[in-house]
Automatic annotation (TrEMBL):
The chain holds residues 396 to 684 of 737 of the full protein. This is Cu+-exporting ATPase. It is found in: Cell membrane. Belongs to the cation transport ATPase (P-type) (TC 3.A.3) family. Type IB subfamily. It comes from the Bacteria. It comes from Actinokineospora diospyrosa.
Amino acid sequence: ATPTALLVGTGRGAQLGILVKGPEVLESTRRVTTVVLDKTGTITTGRMSVVDVVPAPGVAVEELLRLAGAVESASEHPVAKAIAARAASQARVEDFRNAEGLGVTGVVDGVPVVVGRPRLLAQHGIELPTELATALAGSEALGRTVVAAAADGVAIGVISVADTVKPTSAEAISRLRALGLRPVLLTGDNQRVAAAIAAQVGITDVIAEVLPEEKVAAVERLRAGGAVVAMVGDGVNDAPALAAADLGLAMGTGADAAIEASDLTIVRGDPRLAADAIALSRRTLGTIK
Ligand code: ADP
Ligand code: MG
């Protein structure tokens, strides 16, 4: 391929809202067979809102929200933003820590608080009582992301957050399939939520409950199986996987770290442009041959 023709391709990309890091990127784009898509912020809007709050027996809803909201107000995660917005907690948090892909911890009015996946609570030796475990499973079956909260080593409730699928996601998946590509949903969220979201957009291959550092391993397993992998993501937690993929596509609406780690940036956060970018590079290179 001549450099001039490649640059024409990248110019057309810019018109469509696809920013290419360098002309050589088109070459790797053409070979892609499998497209791994992050869920939150890529397939879904990532704008979440609290839809259900279930306190543990004997705990007031206000107290659950005050403690959980205080810790979450220090986090940038979409789940955290939803909880902080709903709680509007005035309490201050000290010793805030982010457990990447799991949740957050901090001290509120001298009380140690943990908010996140049940796995994070378990790491702190905290179990969910049956009432909360049941509420959590029921909400997850509806496709919601559910986090648990604990104070002073005891579970105080679960909070359900709902995200919405982007209106263009289903169309993006059919465009990928029309190009003969295999879409795979990759998420740190639980199996039930992942399956519910995948079904809404027409994805059948789901890799769920992966920690951020495991996203790279998931991409590498697909590559080891012979796939040429494009990864589409938006979060700081997606950056290593974007770099590890044969082709990294970042949502322009996403984190700087994701954009820096990628080869292509999709300006408006519209996942259909991931398919369009691949189609465009095929056409561009096709005319050159
Ligand atoms: P995704 O891969 O869908 O973008 P993440 O890896 O960022 O998800 O997070 C995975 C899961 O970890 C979330 O679904 C949530 O259950 C939990 N989690 C992450 N950050 C937080 C937080 N700040 N508060 C509560 N839970 C969190
Ligand atoms: Mg994400």
